[in-house]
Amino acid sequence: MEDAREVAINKLSELLKHPDDLNSKVGPLTRKLAKEKASIDAQLNSGVQSQLDHVQEGLETLTISSRNINRVKENMRNIDKLCYDAQSMITDFPRINMISQVHQNFVATQAKVRAFQELYQQLDDLEEAFVPMQHDIFQPHEVLLHVHYHLFKLEEFRDKTMHQARDSPHDVIITLKTYFRRVDVLSDDFTQHLWLLARNLIPLVENNCGSTIVKLAKIIEVEEAADEKALAARQAQSNHQDLQGHKKWRLAEGNPRTIKSYRVEFYEQLHQSLLEHFEQEFVPYKEAEDWQGALDATDFIFNELELVFEQVVPKFPKKYKIFPYFVLEYHRHTYDLLNQMVQQDLDAGTILRLLRFVRDYYTTMSTRLGVTEELLEPQLLDGQEQTLVDEYLKLVRRKLVEWTSNLMQSESRDFVQRENPPDMSPDGQFGLSGAVDLFQIINQQIDVAADANQGKLLYLVVNECHKVMKDSQVFWKRLLLSELQKQLDQPEDVPEGFVEYVMALANDQIKCSDFANDILIRVPPIVDANYKSQVEDKISTAIDGYLQIAASAREALLEVTFGDIKPVFADLFTARWYEQPLIPSVIETLKDYCNDFAHLNKFIFDKLIHDMLDRFLMLYLEAMRHKNAKFHMDTCLEKIENDVRLSFNFFAKYTSVEEMEERFDVIEKVHTLLESNRRMIFVDYYTLRQAYPDVPLAFVENILSKRDDLDKSALKDIMEGIKAKAREYEPDANTPPTIFSRIKW
């Protein structure tokens, strides 16, 4: 009732979602539900009436059957009474009956004696026919049914004789057993031969002995029929014990046959033979603990099951269900094999091979044999694939951490101690071996996981590899910052070669980003669709991380480079600058470093030159604001032009003229502002502001205040006009920041 009420409430909540539905939907819903209820009631009434009619018919049939049984019983009693009464109507009936029994006994005794006389000759003939088959199961068994037929008759004769003599003296029983010993031996040998055939069904088929299997099935069917007849007689004996010994009811005496249960024994022999077959196939691999080899050796399972389906199944009656029996037997032995495997200390490769085998096993069973996973019980690994996956990931994690830790330790020692120069590739680029080694490890794990045909597992392995990549990135970032700080703080106390190793690190990180990009291209298409976007995100994040470290290495090279020339910029626009050229020394230093930077990856070198030019321009602009800077007109203008010409020519070796003109435009416009007269200065400021909206007014005021041709009064008037002009200017909000935004004012 509670469940029905809950269902009704849920249904109403779906139908009446809004308060207005009470007014608009209740009437139509009531009529609709009333019609549905009437229809369901009609169907139920019809179904109940039909069931009542069937029950009534069954009761009537039972009543009629009971009457017929009672009528038969009554007729049998009448027949028995008539027979008994008829005996008194025949003169000397007891004597006639006794003579008839004596004659029957004489005939039976004569037949028994003749059977005993012919017994050994029959046994000789049967043994002669049976021995060749017994020695070679692949020999044509043309007389197998003949031997079984006559042996079956001899067994019947033996069983009947021993049953009739059951109340005889002990010495008679012993004599009969001795007499029938050869029958017993031949029967046992023949039975063992049948089970030998049963244990070799597949070899028999492979040797074109299919007719032998048909005869085996026929013999089992004959023996089963005899068992059923004997069991029926025993059931009758059990049900009619009051008739035992009555001369008219021989069935009540039972059947002397020993129940053989050949069909049950046939399946038992099959089971035992398949168990031995699997043991024989896998013992060498178990002894060698070669579990991957054992999995590779399982192809015979599918080949033999195909053979059973095509060659063995047609030779047995359908009721034997030979193919399902073989499938389940092979499956259970496979299940036992895998259970033995998971109890061992498996390596990562074997775990993956095992997981792939399970997936391929079910697929092959379905595609080649038409057997679905639901029919294969018990489930392989008992559904504990996730436990194996976790164990594999734990092994992968431990191995990755171990390998990468050793790799990082070796690489970091070389990076810090710098006893030898870094490796150099044939194209002259510095490098570390870490990138290649790291991604050999990572790609190996990914390839193995991909071969396992487990979409989620591949994602999990990629996730572990991503962690390793991120850990290595964090490690290198920290180490780079630490070594850079030492280089800047105590350049005389640190080993030489810092610049070379930073270049090697930068090149290494670009290699890593390329390797990671290769993974990004090949892994998402083969990973489980549910994890595709996550894999792409993780690998993309790793690529960005490598590029960030390459950028950090580039920044470190800039810091070292400009650390040597930064003091020179402090003297620009001072008395020393007017006395002697300073920029040539800066350009020479940059030239020396750029010659060294030729060992960089082309991508990083171009970026470095771009950043170097930015840094140069920023320092040059910053120098104009220095405390001691002075602009002596018109000398300073000429010297600035010389500085620009020298630096322009240097950077033009590595950058296009168009880009150079664009980049040096800021110096040109500041130069124009410096040389501008009072009437044009507002126009020149506007031009500067148009091109560089983020130029600070403080910067403009600062450089103008350092001109020696402007007194304070003039400067004040100029700045008031410029500030007024600045207030009129409304820059576009979408305008990107310029070089002025990167200068720390």
UniProtKB/TrEMBL annotation:
It comes from Thamnidium elegans. GO terms for molecular function: SNARE binding. The keyword Transport applies. GO terms for cellular component: exocyst. This is Exocyst complex component Sec6. One of its GO terms (biological process) is exocyst localization. Keywords: Exocytosis, Transport. PANTHER family: EXOCYST COMPLEX COMPONENT 3, EXOCYST COMPLEX COMPONENT SEC6-RELATED. The keyword Transport applies. InterPro entries: EXOC3/Sec6, EXOC3/Sec6_C. Belongs to the SEC6 family. It comes from the Eukaryota.
